[in-house]
Design brief:
Pfam families: Ig_3, V-set. The chain has about 400 residues and is of the alpha+beta class. It folds into three domains: about 30-145, Immunoglobulins (Immunoglobulin-like); about 150-230, Immunoglobulins (Immunoglobulin-like, Sandwich), CATH 2.60.40.10; about 240-335, Sandwich (Immunoglobulin-like). Helices cover about 15% and strands about 45% of the residues. It contains four helices and 26 strands. The strands form five sheets. Strands 12, 14, 15, 17, 18, 20, 23 and 24 form an eight-stranded mixed sheet that branches. The chain is rod-shaped, with a radius of gyration of 48 Å. Residues about 15-25 and about 350-410 have low confidence and may be disordered. The structure holds 2-acetamido-2-deoxy-beta-D-glucopyranose (3 copies). One 2-acetamido-2-deoxy-beta-D-glucopyranose binds near residues 284, 285 and 308.
């Protein structure tokens, strides 16, 4: 009896050894599973899941399972295990590749797919001499085609300031999995990015407007969401030239410039300080020309033109920019100059010569301001005499001038 027992022990040991040897020899020929494509089908269509196997051995079996929802052993190689032949089918094919290698494909067929068939399926290769954890296995997913839909979005109406960052999100669902594309403006025009998140950094005035996220998976219709971004910026005013000069009474204009930024685009107006307080400028004495921004900079250039400058025009002018958020002001002073300032001075230089500042002509004086300025000694003489009095110094200065010129040229 004791001997029999030890004999039994021996055979068990040798059996274990044998299986070990088999395992080692089987190692070089463990079959492997290639890529199993997920399947998305229209409801009612049949599903085909191909499980491609290389190096299949006689000691192996290719099995299909449904893993989720509910575990179900469907097939072994080319034959069904489940009794549900209405729903399932299986097909095993063998092809020889270019490299003279055998390729076995075991195809699981799910007939008339419905939502109940949506789930996870597994192809596994059972190898009798190899322990279970080393059996190759791969999963594939079956889904019913579903048009894309939008699950959640970030705030679709946003107010932001220039220089800030904004993040828009758009989460979609669909079968197959949809892709998300971001547009500025209408869909299909200006692509801003892809994926669930769109980052907009360092916003500028021109970045405001409509944005769209489009969710598409090839199953119509596409899903779409529209976002509105309003960019706000308080107005800011600046004057490139704080002082503007012009001579009076020479029918020349003075031009004052002001730069205004802000969003929404500010309205620009001009005012001036008067003895009656601050008054808005609007009469035909003035012209206001606003050059609106054409680029992203958003700078409005406003030019105030004061026609035919006279002494009453000198003073301080105020440029004012106003939008929904705030207002800004900037001041420009119009100062008197002795000489004409501006590009049109040459052509209209003559009137300036007759002004009170340069009495250097011999022509008969006219009853102008000059008289008031220069004859301030006592009462005004009668006009005729007055002319004579002025005449004498004029003749004198002219002769002195002539003499001077004579000597200098000699
Ligand atoms: C098939 O087996 C051969 C020899 O054992 C090996 O060289 C090859 O890599 C295997 N192929 C795959 C796809 O595993
Ligand atoms: C199948 O779908 C799953 C889950 O969506 C994914 O992880 C896997 O990579 C897909 N397989 C293929 C071959 O695309
Ligand atoms: C400025 O003066 C010129 C010349 O006298 C005159 O023709 C013009 O109408 C004046 N313009 C305004 C706005 O007063």
């Amino acid at each position: 009896m004791k001997q029999q027992k030890s004999l039994k022990g021996l055979t068990i040991v040798s059996l274990i050894l044998l299986t070990l040897v088999f395992q080692v020899s089987a190692e070089s020929t463990i079959p492997s599973i290639g890529v199993i494509a997920n399947a998305t089908v229209d409801e009612g269509d049949d599903v085909y899941l191909d499980c491609p196997i290389t190096n299949k051995t006689a000691a192996s079996k290719v099995q299909w399972f449904r893993v989720l929802p509910g575990y179900l052993h469907i097939s072994n190689d080319g034959s069904l295990v489940t009794k549900n032949t209405e729903k399932y089918g299986v097909r095993a094919t063998t092809t020889t590749s270019v490299k003279q290698q055998e390729l076995n494909t075991v195809t699981l067929i799910i007939k008339h797919a419905s939502n109940a068939d949506v789930g996870r399926y597994r192809c596994r290769v059972l190898i009798s001499q190899v322990s279970y954890p080393r059996w190759p296995s791969k999963d594939a997913f079956v889904s019913i085609a579903a048009p894309p839909m939008i699950l959640s979005v970030s705030n679709t109406k946003m107010v932001s300031a220039v220089g800030e960052d904004v993040t828009l999100t758009c989460r979609g669902y669909g079968a197959p999995e949809p892709t998300i594309t971001w547009y500025k403006g209408d869909a299909g025009t200006n692509i801003m990015g892809h994926g669930e998140v769109l980052h907009l950094e360092n916003l500028r005035a021109g970045d405001g407007g409509e944005y769209r996220c489009e969710v598409d998976n090839g199953v119509p219709p596409k899903a779409m969401e529209t976002y509105h971004i309003t960019i706000e910026q308080e107005p800011m005013c600046s004057a490139p030239q704080l002082h503007v000069m012009q001579a009076k009474n020479i029918f020349q204009p003075a031009l004052m410039t002001c730069h205004v930024t802000g969003y929404p685009v500010p309205k620009v107006s001009w005012k001036r300080y008067t003895i009656h307080g601050i008054q808005t400028i609007f009469t035909s004495k003035y012209d206001i020309h606003n050059i609106m921004p054409k680029d992203n900079s958003g700078v409005i250039t406003s030019v105030l033109k004061v026609y035919n400058v006279t002494s009453s025009d000198y003073g301080t002018y105020i440029c004012e920019g106003t939008n929904d958020i705030d207002k800004c002001t900037s001041e420009v002073r119009l100062l008197e100059s002795r000489l004409c300032v501006g590009p049109r001075c040459d052509s209209q230089a003559d009137p300036s010569d007759s002004s009170s500042d340069h009495p250097r002509t011999v022509t008969t004086p006219s009853p102008s301001d000059d008289d008031d300025d220069e004859t301030q000694h006592g009462q005004k003489a009668p006009h005729k005499d007055n002319g004579g009095i002025v005449m004498v110094p004029s003749v004198l200065t002219t002769s002195v001038l002539l003499l001077f010129v004579f000597f200098v040229t000699k």
